[in-house]
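quick one, two chains, predict together pls
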Amino acid sequence: MAATLDADPIALLAAVRRGDAAAQAEFFESHKDAVARQIMRMTGDAGWVDDLVQEVFIAAFSRLGSFRGDAAVGTWLHRITVNKVRNAWDSRRRRLARESEAVRPEVSEHDAPDDEVAAAEQLRQFYAALGELPGKYRDAFVCRVIEELPLEDASAELGVPISTVSYRARRAEALLAKALGLEASS
Amino acid sequence: MTQPFSSEPSPRHPRLDAMIRAVRAQPAPPVTVQVEDIRAAASTRSSRRWWGALAAAAVVAVSLWAVRDRPTTSASLVAAADDPIAQPPVERVPEVADAAALRPRPSSSPSIEPLEGADEPASNEDGVMAVIGGRYRVQTTEAAMQVSVAGRVLEVSAASDVVVDARVEHSSFTVVKGAARWSKPEASPQVPGPSAKQLATQAEAALLSGRLEESVRLLRQLVQSHPRGPATKAGLIDLARLEKRLGRPGRAHCAYALFSKRFPSDARTPSVRQADQSLGQAPRCRGLRPVSK
């Protein structure tokens, strides 16, 4: 019988490591919604969620042995998710380039998110522009601006110094504003 | 300075701000995948990796046997290493960064090459960011270069050994953690003042390291030396927030008022005016300073 997360998280992780089915199920149930929410915020596409959730937990189950416990499990899963979404984004980008279907977003300054359709369209354009950013800028933007990680955590997650994270996030914002036609506002 | 303080205007475009809020507010979609699917997929992949590794070992063994009497070649080993079955994809695991970056900035662009396994320096329009602890070879047409760390600038000479934050040895330098000695560059009439972006970056570095007054000083310099630049818009808003945070609402008002005066048609101006009004006082200002009536 596996330990429950509430009762003893360390025992639960040990049981997951051993391949205990009940522990794996509890671990999955405890974290799947947070992972799904993160994927949704990063991609804006509900169609990606199931596939990427599966990829994240496959990686987590197979690498739990290397989890050192020096970060919270949630942080560790967050990091795996960022990597998986990055891989998915890069694959899609390569596929679009091959198919010459890359969409360049065009937004009129006078567009306004008056209703749900307009709001959905703006989100689509936002994610299209985000997907076109160089990976290092996109990662920094996602961690800092979308996921609102503190600089120290984003730095640890991305493996670059704090000042680099900060610069990249600002650069990503500038590139996004330009791609969305928002830069000349004065 | 991408994170606004609460109830104050954001330095980013309001429409981008609105999109980001919409992104964050998206509800979590239902997850239909089951843990059994994950276990099954993990098991399949694990066995595929096992058989892949076995196949790779067999390929290597056969290759070694085949070439044992021939001149040495690593072609077959390289082929085995490139085999996607032999080498399952490895996910990049980020490491924890332990220090700030360093930016050499001579008047001519240097070429910087990492040595001894140092991390590749990242480039941006301000220069090249080298990583603390790394050793680099610098090729520049000048004998001296400027190095800035966390917003502070020092002049180092490539002709002498100077141990400060950057140890310079002929055409290479090593970034050393833990600064002990600083020297400021001598004022030179030929050298133009720092650019708006440089000042904004330095101000941010000062803010990140908790030197709020230094950040205020740099932002004021930015606003005064580059009155109309795009970095100045964000700089004025940041300055107003900082002044407010430091308990100087009069100065905060002056920064907001200057923004409204200089950029009346900017998309952020309405929220700037609103924030200004919420300060509750409106002294007369001369530039960025309140003046007594």
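Residues 118 and 216 of chain B are 34 Å apart (CA to CA).
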